[in-house]
Design goal:
The mean pLDDT is about 75. The protein is rod-shaped, with a radius of gyration of 16 Å. Helix 1 packs antiparallel against helix 2. By secondary structure, it is mainly alpha-helical. It starts with a helix and ends with a helix. The chain has one domain.
């Protein structure tokens, strides 16, 4: 789900940046999407590492 949202933000940013020559709010939304992706990625890795340590 987060991959889809992040991809949509990138596509919207590219359209606004290069076709409409606008920016602003989309940059903020793009940064939010990237930070949410990174936080989910890090939390998922921690959870998997914790589960691996329990099975040993």
């Amino acid at each position: 789900m987060l991959w889809i949202v992040g991809s949509l933000f990138v596509v919207i940013w590219l359209v606004e940046k290069f076709l409409l020559h606008k920016g602003g709010m989309v940059h903020i939304l793009l940064l939010v999407a990237i930070s949410l992706f990174l936080s989910q990625f890090v939390q998922d890795r921690r959870t998997k590492a914790y589960q691996r340590s329990l099975t040993r």
